[in-house]
DNA sequence: GCGGATCAC
DNA sequence: TATGGTGATCCGC
């Protein structure tokens, strides 16, 4: 029973507190000495005591798991094994090695920026952060064991010469923008993970590159800031995101790693990879797996049957994919945000009055942030951390969505009061308080910007013939900037409709931005399909009545309805729902760099007679709606890519406070080479 | 829906 | 003197 696991308890705890030499630049330093200093600096503190407590909880989880394991029968294991083999086969069949996924992150990003701006720092061990917490450190500091997420005062004990520079996020954001501009040229749909990290899908870029003249292939970025390029870490290249992430970490700081897209190479690569290297497997998961003597990814594969009996389905699914070297092959922008929060750490705060006023302040700030994004939420959560580092959250969900300071505070205040009362007659001794909003519904504030999408769409649909009437619905106002448009999801429930206030239980009614009819569904995919159909109809209409100056909405509406009916009927028979791959369009961030708009253009252009695409090599007159330049291409995919690039550039420049953009994306210049006519 | 926990950055 | 802030997700109620 006292079957002590491979690790002793002390060693286990060390893994929680001690130096994480995972990071680059940590090779060949005196681990024991460093860990000693870290431990000595921490011992006896409230923080340390709490960490100890948490570690013991993990140990209990492990014990429980080991007990479960001991009770597993051979029959169970055998059955599980069969199941696992079946799933493995299915997963193996789904393996896709055709994509070129790149993961890039900046090496010691904040530190690199500070060193760029202050030459003196280049020769000194330095870190960005405060005495309480460091964000990152440069390589000189890493030699002493100074690393991110370490409190500055401990770092100082490890390296008394350490220079700690306070963070300057505006500056990092500016550099990040420059870098993202470069990313966008390679993949307009790149996925930023933070200021210093992103995934890119290079597949299409590489295909296009084949057709470029030599001059273009060599220096593309002569006009761009070199200063930022210096700090880009060379990337990790692999057939999927999971692998790319590991690869980018491989040869830090000064090398890239490319994993060949073959099954053999992938499996070889995975074989001895420590499970902790996998994104998503953190300290605790590592410890639990280690208790089962699983330390390398190959062990995961060998122990899948056992794991499937001890872990949840989602966890197992993930383990299995990892063990096979599988991961996402398509990078998609994150969906809309699900929560927004604010929290603050402070010196012990025990006075109830002060706690309430702090709470109000947090609510005020949160309400401001909510307003900026036009959000309203139904759930208010209060987070408290006492001086012993114990964290509690308390939440309440309302009938109606709220956003204003007073409304949020009314709830948060009650939650706080309950906690204070529960502790009475003792005071709550807090070191952190936070307020979070979630369970968002669309808010009225969103309506104006959403309408700008309509304006944008309609502008495209009408091309030159702009309709001036229209029941004051702002349909023709194109005042919204491109970035505004891009910030918004396409299939947003109509904000000014009463049913979206969040106070009614009946299904949401969504208003089609094209035909303005109500679509009664909760499924945004269904709604998007409807919009697609409407756009088709609208563009057909436009084609038919090019000489007319008035857009016939009624006709559109009617045709929409008919088409939708037809479509629904045919869909009932087919397996593949139309447009199912476009589900990313309901995601606002997905639209940020043109994803959703792109489809609009495609749909519109699709309705052009196919003859103009294929016959006689005649070039159609595709005019980019962003840069307004005629694009000499008849390849819609190429045209769309161009628009994407333009949108990206515009957004980036807007972010930088510029209104014009300096260059037209080069892609289309070469489009003739990659047209279908070859 | 709630609350604790884990994870990433 | 001193161990962060934000967002997401999962699991077990």
Automatic annotation (TrEMBL):
It is found in: Nucleus. Belongs to the DNA polymerase type-Y family. GO terms for biological process: DNA repair; DNA replication; error-prone translesion synthesis. Its EC number is 2.7.7.7. Pfam families: IMS, IMS_C, IMS_HHH. It catalyses: DNA(n) + a 2'-deoxyribonucleoside 5'-triphosphate = DNA(n+1) + diphosphate. Residues 509-539 form the UBZ4-type domain. Residues 567-593 are annotated as: Disordered. Keywords: Coiled coil, DNA damage, DNA repair, DNA replication, DNA synthesis, DNA-binding, DNA-directed DNA polymerase, Magnesium, Metal-binding, Mutator protein, Nucleotidyltransferase, Nucleus, Repeat, Schiff base, Transferase, Zinc, Zinc-finger. Residues 101-282 form the UmuC domain. InterPro entries: DNA/RNA_pol_sf, DNA_pol_Y-fam_lit_finger_sf, DNA_pol_Y-fam_little_finger, DNA_polymerase-Y, DNApol_IV, PolY_HhH_motif, Rad18_UBZ4, Rev_trsase/Diguanyl_cyclase. One of its GO terms (cellular component) is nucleus. One of its GO terms (molecular function) is damaged DNA binding. It is an enzyme of class 2 (transferase). The keyword Magnesium applies. DNA polymerase specifically involved in DNA repair. Plays an important role in translesion synthesis, where the normal high-fidelity DNA polymerases cannot proceed and DNA synthesis stalls. Depending on the context, it inserts the correct base, but causes frequent base transitions, transversions and frameshifts. Lacks 3'-5' proofreading exonuclease activity. Forms a Schiff base with 5'-deoxyribose phosphate at abasic sites, but does not have lyase activity. This is DNA polymerase kappa.
């Amino acid at each position: 029973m006292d079957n002590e696991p491979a690790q002793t308890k002390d060693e286990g705890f060390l893994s929680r507190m001690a130096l994480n030499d995972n990071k680059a630049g940590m090779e060949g330093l005196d681990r024991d000495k460093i860990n000693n200093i870290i431990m000595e600096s921490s011992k006896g503190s409230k923080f340390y005591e709490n960490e100890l407590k948490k570690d013991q909880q993990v140990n209990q989880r492990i014990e429980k798991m080991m007990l479960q394991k001991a009770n597993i029968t051979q029959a169970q294991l055998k059955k599980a094994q069969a199941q696992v083999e079946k799933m493995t086969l299915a997963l193996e069949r789904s393996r896709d090695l055709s994509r070129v996924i790149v993961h890039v992150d900046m090496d010691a990003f904040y530190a690199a920026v500070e060193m760029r701006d202050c030459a003196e720092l280049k020769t000194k061990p330095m870190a960005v952060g405060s005495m309480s917490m460091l964000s990152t450190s440069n390589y000189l500091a890493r030699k002493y064991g100074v690393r991110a997420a370490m409190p500055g005062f401990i770092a100082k004990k490890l390296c008394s010469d350490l220079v700690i520079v306070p963070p300057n996020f505006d500056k990092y954001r500016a550099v990040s923008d420059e870098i993202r501009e470069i990313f966008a040229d390679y993949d307009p749909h790149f996925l930023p993970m933070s200021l210093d990290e992103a995934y890119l899908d290079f597949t299409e870029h590489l295909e296009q590159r084949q057709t470029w003249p030599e001059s273009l292939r060599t220096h593309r970025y002569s006009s761009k800031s070199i200063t930022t390029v210096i700090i880009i870490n060379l990337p990790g290249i692999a057939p999927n995101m999971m692998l790319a992430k590991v690869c980018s970490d491989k040869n830090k700081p000064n090398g890239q790693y490319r994993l060949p897209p073959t099954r053999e190479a992938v499996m070889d690569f995975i074989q001895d990879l420590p499970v902790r290297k996998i994104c998503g497997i953190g300290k605790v998961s590592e410890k639990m797996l280690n208790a089962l003597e699983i330390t390398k990814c190959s062990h995961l594969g060998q122990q899948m049957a056992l794991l499937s009996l001890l872990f949840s389905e989602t966890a197992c699914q993930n383990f299995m994919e990892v063990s096979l070297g599988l991961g996402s092959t398509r990078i998609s922008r994150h969906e809309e945000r699900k929560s927004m929060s604010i929290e603050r750490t402070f010196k012990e705060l025990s006075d109830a009055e002060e706690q309430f006023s702090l709470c109000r302040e947090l609510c005020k700030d949160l309400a401001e942030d909510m307003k900026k994004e036009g959000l309203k939420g139904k759930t208010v959560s209060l987070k408290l951390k006492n001086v012993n580092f114990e964290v509690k959250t308390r939440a309440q969900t309302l009938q109606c969505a709220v956003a204003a300071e007073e409304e949020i505070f009314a709830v948060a205040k009650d939650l706080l009061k309950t906690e204070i009362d529960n502790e009475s007659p003792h005071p709550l001794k807090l070191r952190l308080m936070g307020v979070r909003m979630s369970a968002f519904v669309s808010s009225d504030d969103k309506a104006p910007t959403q309408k700008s999408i309509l304006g944008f769409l309609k502008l495209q649909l009408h091309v030159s013939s702009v309709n001036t009437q229209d029941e004051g619905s702002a349909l023709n106002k194109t005042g919204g900037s491109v970035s505004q448009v891009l910030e918004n999801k396409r299939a947003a429930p109509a904000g000014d409709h009463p049913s979206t206030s969040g106070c009614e239980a009946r299904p949401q009614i969504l208003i089609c931005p094209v035909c303005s009819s109500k679509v009664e569904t909760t499924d945004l995919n269904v709604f998007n399909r409807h919009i697609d159909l409407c756009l088709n109809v609208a563009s057909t209409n436009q084609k038919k009545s090019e000489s007319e100056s008035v857009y016939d909405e009624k006709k559109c509406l009617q045709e929409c309805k008919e088409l939708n009916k037809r479509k629904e009927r045919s869909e009932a028979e087919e397996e593949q729902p139309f447009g199912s791959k476009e589900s990313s369009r309901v995601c606002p961030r997905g639209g940020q760099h043109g994803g959703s708009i792109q489809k609009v253009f495609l749909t519109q252009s699709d309705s052009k007679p196919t003859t103009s695409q294929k016959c006689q090599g005649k070039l159609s007159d595709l005019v980019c709606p962003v840069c307004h330049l005629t694009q000499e291409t008849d390849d819609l995919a190429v045209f769309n890519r161009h628009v994407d690039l333009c949108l990206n550039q515009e957004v980036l420049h807007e972010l930088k406070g510029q209104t014009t953009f300096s260059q037209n994306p080069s892609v289309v210049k070469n489009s003739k080479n990659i047209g279908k006519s070859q």
